Input
Amino acid sequence: MLRRHHSVLARLIAPFAPYLIAIGALLPTSATVIAQEPSHPLQPSPQLFLIQHYDADIDLTQASQRRIRGRVKMAVTFALGQSDAVVRFHAKGIDVDSVAWRGIRVEYSTTNNTAATADFAAHVGDVSPSLIPDTLTVWYSGTMTHEGGTLPWGGVHFEGGILYALGVGFTAPYVSTTRHWLPCYDHPSMKATFRARFTMAAGNDVASNGLRTYDTIIGNRRIVEWSMTEPSATYLLTFAHGPYAKVVVPWTTPIEIYALRNTDTIAAKRSFSLVPRMADVLTEHFGPYPFSKIGYCATTRGAMEHQTMVSYPVGLMRGNDTVNTVAAHELAHQWFGDLVTPVDFRHAWLTESFATFSECLWLEKLSDTTRYFFSVKSKADEYITTIAKSEGVFGLVDFPRTGGSSNYPQTIYQKGAVVLAMARTIAGDEAFFAALQSYLNEHRLGTATTDDFVEHLTSALGERTQNFVEQWITGKGWPILSDRKST
Ligand SMILES: [Zn+2]
Output
């Protein structure tokens, strides 16, 4: 189990216990051999440090130039004492100006800064294990960029008067793209709490994760602070800066919509009017909503399930589509992806298959089971007739990322949703949703792998589990049935 209130050491070591046991069996001490490499997007690597919290001051007064000037303080603990320790972080396209440990400037080195992962290592000297964090401070500045490529997504964009960040890239080899605006250990295996104060030109607002804890205007500047007490993967951190107005939709947990204030507030009210019902439906299936706020902010690209603040396409917001399966998909991610995060991006189906399947659950509740089965079938048809041809045929776990595929191929959305619908039919509602909830409860606020999910699926599918997983989750393709009438 991995819970927020476990000891620091348990939180640090738990996701890597199998690796540490393997290493420990081979060598007399593990401290000298782990933490040599940063985590790879497709392979977590145990680190001796744990960043528990990010506290950032970010100047966005030159937003239209995508300029940023910032300082981030990372609260860091160590599991073991060591000499010449390093704290690793990532920063891409922004300049690291200086680094301090416990308030004293320290050296830092870079590896592959312009290549795949953009790693930095701060050399913090001798450290001892402690439950009380020390502070690593990074000052940085520059012009924020995005992942590039033909369909840029991850990173920072300035479009339509909005400056905003999307947390993952479709083609970036490093996948997690928060490093384009915030120096951080940008890997889903290390979740942390987050607080940030944004300074901007008055007349704008910033939407971000958690709750607004401070808001003031001094002269022609506005300062807004956001604070999130639930740990988050770094790819789920975000900000969006623009001429927003907040639309509040009442529910048990506040629902805040950030719409462009001169044009979109009425359309936003209508487009999100059924989100309370959506939240009721997902709560019924998955358990209580896990965070302190539901948020959507208008961006030009999206949608993206940032924790408590979904980036949502402004064009859709204007569409007056009250069924809004996109809003339902992103809301479902707050459980699948945000509350429980894949430990690395090989397991991205643990987010996308479930969010896409949730679109069908929403349509079922809104209409009936016929509409549910129709939506599942249309996803199966789309997968077989279109997606498998353009992306290639592969399993849901550790899929290829090039050719017709990407970091987020449609296969893990549409085929994945159908596979979950099949598991539901085989198991029956009671056992299936109980398995989903026990998976979420065991790994809440932490990380998980496909094996972790399968462990819970076993309680629903029993002895059929292994066959089901091999055929539909790790296996690829689909069966072709033929039928011939005997004469
Ligand atoms: Zn999604």
Remarks:
- Residues 369-391 form the longest helix (23 residues).
- The two ends are 60 Å apart (CA to CA).
- The domain at 50-153+165-230 is CATH 2.60.40.1730 (Immunoglobulin-like).
